[in-house]
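Bench log. Compound arrived from synthesis this morning; before running ITC I wanted a structural hypothesis for how adenosine monophosphate sits in the protein. Inputs:
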Amino acid sequence: MAKLSIRDLDLKGKTVFMRVDFNVPLSEDGQTITSDKRIRASLPSIQYALEQGAGLILASHLGRPKGKPNPTMSLKPIAVKLAELLGKPVAMAPDCVGAAVSAMRPKPGDVLLLENLRYHAEEEGNDAEFSKQLASLAGVYVNDAFGTAHRAHASTVGMIQFLPQAAAGLLMDKELEYLFKITQDPPRPCVAILGGAKVSDKIEVIENLMKIVDRLLIGGAMAYTFLKAKGEPVGKSLVEDDKLDLARKIMADAGAKLLLPVDHVVAAELKEGAPCSTVTAIPDGQMGLDIGGKTVEEFRAVIAGAKSVIWNGPMGVFEKPPFDKGTVAIAKAVAESGVLSVVGGGDSEKAIKAAGVSGKISHISTGGGASLEFLGGVELPGVAALTNR
Ligand code: AMP
């Protein structure tokens, strides 16, 4: 369902409440921002709203203050950083609701940053009265925080019912454009590549993607639960024994659609630089830590024949070389395919960066949990709440 975009709104002279994701990593004392990536990612929507003549209220959570003020999780350092990036003053509110905040309503072209939404337990509780207070600050709502769209909180869902229009910001808009396209109308054949640690974390994703894609390639530790379910030797690889029946059912339903690794890089221990070898049958006492070269070739051939690709999760213990090779090879294969590609999950993104191919991926999702839920077929509450186009 297409959602209203910030570009569809008349913002001139309006006070806009923009939910952003300023949940940046901070030093322990909360004074220094260690990565401003998320702030920079919000700049296009912020600048757009200001250029259109809006007075802009920005709101975010930061860390887990558990419903009460905590100076190590204040957004004050973010106001300073944002002012530097925008080249203009950013007023800092003492709280996110209340009379003092209402009195700070920004004039057209001005920016007000609210204090941490999660200083109030009512934010995560999606409390109606708190939602009403947030909504009373503005005339228009914009959500640019895709990373929290899978949460039904006051600032992502509750407050929307008290405002006439709710639109996606530019970042959110791009996420939705790619995620809707790849799940509802993907160019075919569409290939999904899934990896990572556990089948149990991605059951919904596997089951939903099975309905959408033409081929599903499974790597990472997840593959060993499937291989064990098939009766293959897995040594001491990571296996979820309580998911063997489920794996059998998924394989029976999927038939030839599902591809598993045919060889493995194994070692006796999960340690960076551990002595390793490539095998087709995993011996006792060894564990599979990456997909082998034959598997890379098989997966690469399928990816090369695809017209669209979805990728989530590493093919091996990517953080510990030499077990990163399979994941990096798949990153390159996805990039080289040159087709519509949507990648989610922090590890896949790191692999793409390590392979130096970021520019060749159509879309790298900014929201790990949110994109996983989306791929699992869940309607994200923060997206569902936005006004339909
Ligand atoms: P996820 O968050 O589910 O995408 O899982 C990512 C984690 O899976 C990473 O920390 C990887 O090290 C881990 N992983 C991938 N393949 C394996 C494997 N064969 N054995 C153990 N852990 C793995």
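What the model suggests: The mean pLDDT is 96. The longest helix spans residues 37-51.
ITC booked for Thursday regardless.
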